[in-house]
Structure formats: C-alpha cells, structure tokens
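Blackboard transcription, Thursday session:
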Amino acid sequence: MDFNLTEPQEMFQKEVKKFAETELTPFVDIMDKDNEFPHEVRPKLAAMNLYGIPIDQKYGGAGADHTSLALALEEIAKVLAPLAIHLQLQHVVNDRFSKLATEDQKMKWIPAICEATKVGCFGFTEPETGSNPKMIKTTAVEEADCFVLNGTKRFITNAPWADVMCVFAKLEGDISLFFVETDLKGFSTSKKMDKLGLRGTDLSDVVLEDVRIPKDHLMGGRGGKFDALKDAMTIGKLCLSAQCVGLMQASLDEAIKYAMNRMHFDEPIFELQAIHWLLAEMASRLEAARWLTYRAAFLKDQGLDTIKDMAITKLFVTQTAVDVCRFGMQVHGAYGISKEYKIERLFRDAKMYELLEGTSEIQRELVVKRLPR
Amino acid sequence: MDFKLTDEQTKLRKEFFDVCEGLEKKKPKGFAGLEGIYDTDEGWEYHLDCAREFGKRGWLSLGWPEEYGGQGTIMDKVFLSEATGYHDVPGVDIFGVNMLAPTLLAAATDEMRKEYLPSIASGERMWCELWSEPNAGSDLAALTTSAVRKGDEYVINGQKIWSTGAHRGDWAFALVRTDPHADRKQKGITFLLMDMKIPGVTVKPLLYMDRCHLYNEVFLDDVRVPVRNVVGEENQGWGVTQTLANFERSSLGAIMAMHRQIEEVVEYCNETKANGVPLAKNQLVRNRLAQMASELWASHALAYKIADAQSKNEMAAFDASAVKVLSGELQARMAQFGCDLLGPYGQVKHSKWAQFDGFFEKWYQQSFILNVAMGTNEIQRNIIAWYGLGLPRMK
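(Written on the board underneath:)
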C-alpha cells in the first residue's frame, strides 16, 4: 500500500492549483453573482488539457489516470466549483464516446471537446424520473433511415449552448443511448434555471420533438444501456466526490484564516475551544473524505471499481462536504452570510452535490443491495 | 403540573388562529419569514397592515399591565405567536413588541413607558436594534460606538452592523459606550432609544447570501439623542441588554412554523411518488420525519415551560439558550431535509420548476442565521454550561 502521489501526479496537481488560483478566480463573480457561464474560460481550460485528462492521447487527451482527474477537479473546485462541474460533464461525454462510439465518431467529437471547440451535455434525468432509469419516458422510434426522438430531459448542465448531447431513450422499451447534435430540428432548450448553488452552470430543460438522427448515432448497439448509464454515473460520482474534497479544503482554509484574524474577548477566536472543536471536526472529516475519494480513483484506474464503492464514496463525501462547509460557516459567525467572504458560496455549492448524480437516499439503496448477506 | 389549556385560553387561541388564517390569504406571493417582511416594499406594507389589525384588537400589548394599555397574559402572547408562526403572518414587530416592550416594562421609568408603549401597542411605530459592531459580535461588550454627553444630549459616533430591518424601522434601541474608561467593558454601556430619521444616521444594505435585504450597516455621525432616551441608568445598559436578550430567545413562532412545514411535507409525501412508490412509504423519509417531529415536540414543550416561567418572572437564562439551540439547529436540519426530499428540485429557486414555491431552497440559506444571530449557538452552549450545569466559566 502506498499513499504517496506519483511525481507526475504531484506536478500536475501543482500546475492545476496555480492555474486555478491565477486564471479562474476572476470568473467567480460572473458565475455566482451574475449566473452566467464565462465562455472565454474554455480555451484556457483546454490549453491545460483539462477536458481530456484520462482520454487517450490519440484523441487529443492527456492520457493520464483518474487519480489525476480527481486531483485536478479538487483544485478547480477549491476556487470555482461550477467550472469543475462543467469539466466533469465533458469527461462523462468523452468517456461515453470513447467506450461506445465508432472510430470516426470518436475522431469527430473527442478532440473537439478536448480543444473546447465543441461542448457536450448528458441527458438522462426527466421531469418525473430522477432516480429510477427504468422509468424514463423519452422514446426513440426506428424509421427507415433514422431514429426519431421525443421527450423532455431536465436539469441538463451546459444544454443551452452545447453542441452535442448524449441522450438516454427507450428503444422498443429498452434503455438505449444516442448522441444528438443540438442544431437539429426539434431540439430546444428552456430558459436556464436559477439555483441555490453551482451558479453559472446553465441548467435547463431539453425538449426533443421529433428529432431525427442518423442510425449511426445509436451508441454501442441496441438496448442494455442501463450498464452504460451506471458506468457513466460511476465516473460522475468520482468527479463529484473529488470536487467536494476541494470545497471542504477551501472551507477549512477560509475558516482557519478567519479564526486567526477575528478578534473577540481580546484574542483571535482561533484560541477559543468552541472554534477548536469546529476546526478539528472539519479537518478530520475532510481527511476521511479525501482518502475515500482517492481510493475510488485508484479502484477506477485498476478497473476494480464497483457500483457499491462509488455509491459509498459519493454518499459519505457529499454528506461530509455539507457538514464541513456548514461548520466553516459557523466559524465565521454572522459574517458567514456575507458575500464579502467565500464561505457562503462554498456552503451553497456543497449542498448541490448531495442532490446531483443520484441523491444520498439512492446511494444508500445502491449500497444496501450490494452488501454481503 | 398541568399542560391543559383553560376553556378561555382555548377560545382565545382559536381566535388568534382564525384571524391569522384570514390574514394569510392576503399574503403577497413569495412572502416567507423575516425576509418577507423586510426585503420588499410589498412585504413591508403587508406587515404594517397586519400590525394595524393586531393593534386594533389589543394583541400587541398582551401581557402588559392594564395601566399601559395591556390585556391578557404572557401566555396569551405565546398563543398569538403560535398563530402567527403557523400561518407565517407578520404584524408582530419582533423588536418593538417582543423585545423592547417587555424591557421597558422591566427597566424603564413610568414616564418612558407612557411615551413609547402606546405606539408599539397600536402597531404605528416599528423598531430595529443597533447592537453588534464590526468588532463586537459575540463579544458584544467590546462595542465602541461612543456617546459623549453634551448638556442634555448625547453625541453619538460609530458603526453598527447586522441591524435587521434598519432600512425600515422608525426607531431603534441602541447600545452605546458612555464610559470608555470603565474598569470592566460591560460597565460603560448605556441602552438608549433613538429616532432613525434624525440627522447623522446612514443605513447601508448588507445583503444576505441569497441577495435579500434583511440586514444593514448603520453609520452614526454626530447623532444627537436626548439623555432622557436612556432606558435604566447611564452605564447600566449591559444589565438591560441581558433582560432583553432572554425575551427574544424564547419565541414560539418559529416552532409553530416548523409544525406547519412538517404538515405540508407530510401532505406532499402522501401525494407524491418517487419511482412509483409514495414518498410516505419510503422508510428513510418516514424515519427522518419522525425524528424531526419528536425533536420539534420536545422544543415545543420546553418553549411552553419557558413561557410559563416568564409569565411568573421565573425564567432562567439557560432555558432560553437551550430552546434557541434546539429549535435553531432543528430548523436547519428541516431545511436540509426539505431539499433532500425534493432531490434535484431542492436546488431550484422560486420558478415554474420549483416545488413548495422554492421555499426549501430559500430556507436552506435562511435557516443558517438562526444558529448565529442573538448569540451564536457556541455562546448559548457556554451559557448552558456555566449557568445551567454550574461548570467552570471558560472562554
């Protein structure tokens, strides 16, 4: 067992940390205050190859491992979590293409996503279907030379300006995966939603009305794509967990900084036992979450990850992030609610992670079903 | 020991609930909680309308001595706060009615009571507080806003922060330092009343994390306040502050609001299915609801005990601290549960997509301040430890 990062991982982590602090900090207000996505940041992310970390170099990726992906998302989330979510989704889309698309399709889409000349989004959730994939209502009907898609997807990140969408739909009653160019007739998006946290990620409904797509847009063959969904979600859970580690680290850093500077009763509040308790809880829980996340990344890299491992990781880490960021708010006292300090944004962003990619309740079900009996 | 209400109390409580039910129907769209009162002009007008309605009925002076226009008992006031909390109806000025009026009755001269209580009782004058400062929050006694006596006036200079509703209030009760050389910082503080519209008072918004306007910074530049506006004695304000703080912590309104939230959530769970199964049959949902309901009833029982003790002038500080901690942390957990219950919909602000009209998304943010305002829960736990359990005093 070896808990050290490799030299390339360590170097990469340092580079991303520096990049995030210098290049991404200026975009905080645009995203959180104005609820706008700063498209000018995409070439910067692409220049660091952040869109293709675990992608084969032949497709323009960095050919790195999932631990590096986790480290990068952690550093970015420390500064601006919504951008980490944006990156995560590109990885999920790239991952689907790399595993299920034809070689021509891979060459068309993956390098473009890595270069940020194209953007993908991922369409599974529907207005009445969040947790049970078997209940999706979007349909794909086969015609002579195409599939016709009809349905509505909800909470789709990047949808308002994406170029391609991976869509789960029922083909002859079985879950299948398609990709859809968003400029096709019949593809539309609603106005974007205003949200509690992760603002600026442009979330909306997608409506598919008789969208006709070529037959080769069916990814990985007919039906049985429940496994593809589960696979996509394991990447998603790892990515979300890594971001939560970043949020927690940022909360702890902010809480310590505040506690060292805030004077009360003639000394910094850092000296008060009540604050010690809060900081100690934050630090301990963060470390447990961090190493569970890194373990999940290791398992993914070894091909040993299971649905249960990822569900446990997501469940524990996202819940812990909510607690740790809340403690961070408590350390700040009333100033916790002020936009002058970072902590309230971290608090709002943290809650979002419990609600995305399967709620904590669903993760529990996934875990329990797979416990040894 | 008797938890039963008398027939008269039952009848009066029902009257409170009936009137508040009627007022709830006039609530502006999107109105919720304290933010609803202070954030928009519409919410503020609704608050004033409700205040006038309560004032007309004598309900803003419940528990006061008759000589000052009072009627009924402190328990009657508790029942009214249950009704306003349950229906989320404003009208009871938390600063004027809940905090200042009992303090004036406990610590002010007869002349002062006759001057200030009538307009509180009628709902004509709204109040705010000028307490915390940028460097005096938990350590409130470290406040430095100065009040220098010049003849029969104080000239006040300083800055206050986190003043709820200072952009709306007509008058304020303020803590100022009248003796900067006192041997203990608590000793040089004076509690006085001031008009918010006099020269030298500048109010600037301090937006909450959801960008609603609840709090303010208040700058006081050579503000002149008559000496006769002091409550109690000069340099004796700290004692007055302790009296006031305890009245505020024992409010039942928030507890009744949570009862209403649980009822609405139960209704939602009975009507809503997830993956084809009613949420009401989901074991996790049932477990969490049951847990919160139990804690809520425990908080409610303690709040009744405090109200009873208050009515007999027997209230202990740590009781109020205990209910503040219990109910505040429970509210934060309920807000969290509401978001969790809604899944991805829990993130959505008030919009066509929002469930419960976006209440839980908003409340998730709003409920945080309950565990920080009027003494953080860390301070409350210290109070419980020192005064309730007799443990050694530490920082």
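Lecturer's comment: Chain A touches chain B through 46 residues (CB under 8 Å).
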